[in-house]
Amino acid sequence: MFATRFNRIAAWLVALLLVATAWMLAERYLDTGAPTDLAVVQPEECDLNTGACSTVLPLGGEVRLAITPRPVPMLRELTLELELDTTAREALEEPDALELDLAGVEMYMGFQRPRLEHAGDGLYRGTTTLPICTTESMTWAATAMPAGTPEASFVQFRFVTARDHQP
Length: 167
Known about the structure:
Elements: H1 2-29, E1 39-41, E2 53-56, E3 62-68, E4 77-84, H2 86-91, E5 97-104, E6 115-120, E7 123-129, E8 137-146, E9 155-162
Parallel strand pairs: 1-9
Antiparallel strand pairs: 2-3, 3-4, 4-7, 5-6, 5-8, 6-7, 8-9
């Protein structure tokens, strides 16, 4: 009687394990529904620690991001400047403000989404401070979007902060 009950429970446990494994693999390898037209600039292509980075948007136009001071430090106020050329402004319908979602790539670093105010002529400015990471370096994904509409993200710049960037 015990063996029969155990066999039934074991069968359900194996089935549950298979479903959980399939779920994890599906999340990892299947399309997540993220926008396919999101331009992504990797640190190997352009390093925000040494200067501003720019890229052409799939929807048209060019966007440029600058973060100062350089190299990008943690626990110090950063000035963020995102500039849209005329074509990008038209494609994005010249938003009143932008947001820059800053997310740790290797680990969750809290919610960081500073607002960048329109300073005129396609230039958006704001400030933020990045938290310090327990590891020696952290890769950040800075995703730009019109304020309040994360589903309309249009570009992501990736950059690395390191403990040796500290004063």
